[in-house]
Amino acid sequence: MVVLEIKSLKKAYHQSSTSIEIFKDLNFHVKPGQKIAIMGKSGSGKSTLLSLISGIIKADDGDILLDGTSYKQLEESQINDFRASNIGFVFQNFHLVSYLNALENVMLPAKVCNISNPKEKAKELLKSVGLEHRLDHLPSQLSGGEKQRVAIARALIHNPKIILADEPSGNLDEETGIAVMDKLFELIDKNNTTLVLVTHSKEVALRCEKTYELSQGNLV
Ligand SMILES: Nc1ncnc2c1ncn2[C@@H]1O[C@H](COP(=O)(O)OP(=O)(O)OP(=O)(O)O)[C@@H](O)[C@H]1O
């Protein structure tokens, strides 16, 4: 069984007369419930890979299948809903909506996905990340670690097929980063969610089952 499949993926960026080839022929798959870490030098294409998996940018050739759905076959108009329903995101910079409180931020995916009792579920998730006393705080009224815990709750509320995490502890001090990663892995294990995590930290990568190095367009 495979939840994410990357087939002969090709991607280059074109800028004036030059082109930067990121992937020539990338093949890769992730099994359901697997936790994968991706490391690699700056500029090796880690963020590009996450953007391709999220459908934010398109491949030049090849295909990506998430839970059997081919991105090639998705219409442009379907991709946003597909992403919102199937993928959860945790970013280095949290990406919370500044004018929504913690509870409302966690409930956001419910606007696109059919979630029963979203408010109850959001409260439950916020409780499980230790933030039951911060429900009506705006992001500006939360600490970095608290913001990331809100983002983790939001990433999980719709039971996504996969979580994409980009340096989730990158903006946190060491102790807070460890506490936040503990929560992320605890919830991911509880829900048996698949994780693809980009990180520069060996300690963070070691929490995953497999670590790949992105080098010269290949995952090794
Ligand atoms: N939109 C774009 N247009 C042109 N070149 C780009 C674009 N986005 C990224 N690149 C180039 O593609 C290469 C890969 O970038 P990417 O952001 O995927 O690397 P990364 O491995 O995530 O790096 P880092 O660890 O520094 O975040 C880099 O050389 C970058 O300059």
Automatic annotation (TrEMBL):
The keyword Chaperone does not apply. PROSITE patterns: ABC_TRANSPORTER_1, ABC_TRANSPORTER_2. Gene3D superfamilies: P-loop containing nucleotide triphosphate hydrolases (3.40.50.300). The keyword Ribosomal protein does not apply. Keywords: ATP-binding, Nucleotide-binding, Transport. GO terms for molecular function: ATP binding; ATP hydrolysis activity; transmembrane transporter activity. InterPro entries: AAA+_ATPase, ABC_transporter-like_ATP-bd, ABC_transporter-like_CS, MacB-like_ATP-bd, P-loop_NTPase. Residues 4-220 form the ABC transporter domain. Coiled coil: none annotated. It comes from the Bacteria. GO terms for cellular component: membrane protein complex. Belongs to the ABC transporter superfamily. Macrolide exporter (TC 3.A.1.122) family. This is ABC transporter ATP-binding protein. The lineage of its organism: Bacteria, Pseudomonadati, Campylobacterota, Epsilonproteobacteria, Campylobacterales.
